[in-house]
Design goal:
The chain is of the alpha+beta class and 154 residues long. The protein has one domain. Helix content is 27%, strand content 27%. A 7-stranded antiparallel beta sheet has the order 1-2-3-4-7-6-5, covered by helices on one side. About 16% of the residues have low confidence.
Length: 154
């Protein structure tokens, strides 16, 4: 092969590697359902979320110590995503609740995303910068980041 072909192949390989690394840049990688917007991540500020989604606090429920936003999802397995933002400081996103149409869809999603529970009936995922805990409740998969000074970290 000629040097030009090697250069072209090497360039293509580097582009593929960069694209793959960008696609998995979230803190918790593939632990999120595909219905979640690709730029939503734990610890993002309420302001950043509102800019991304085109929402405002007037679209949210004021729940004394947190802001609650309900997003309806048009999907065959999931109906809604609930987002919890702390009211203090940068108002980080610290909890997401994925509501499935039934327990069958919930169990399939939890198995695919998280594998078998590693703490009784719950999951504990040690990650930087914050550990993640997850559990099932009725038709919901609840995921919470243990961000200091938020509900689950205290």
């Amino acid at each position: 092969m000629q040097p030009r072909i090697y250069t072209t192949l090497l360039s293509g390989l580097l582009i593929a590697i960069l694209m793959a690394s960008c696609a998995t840049s979230r803190t918790y990688g593939k632990s999120y359902p595909e219905q979640l917007h690709k730029k939503v991540d734990f610890n993002m500020s309420l302001a950043d979320f509102n800019n991304l989604k085109g929402t405002s606090t007037s679209d949210m429920k004021d729940d004394s110590f947190r802001w609650v936003y309900l997003e309806t999802v048009d999907d065959e397995n999931m109906t809604d995503i609930v987002y919890y933002f702390d009211k203090d400081g940068d108002q980080p996103l610290y909890e997401m609740i994925f509501i499935y149409k039934d327990t069958i869809a919930l169990n399939e999603a939890a198995d695919q995303l998280l594998g078998p529970p590693n703490d009784g009936k719950e999951w504990r995922i040690a990650k930087d910068p914050y550990a993640l805990t997850a559990w099932k409740y009725k038709t919901k998969l609840v995921m919470a980041a243990l961000i200091p000074e938020t509900e689950w970290a205290e």
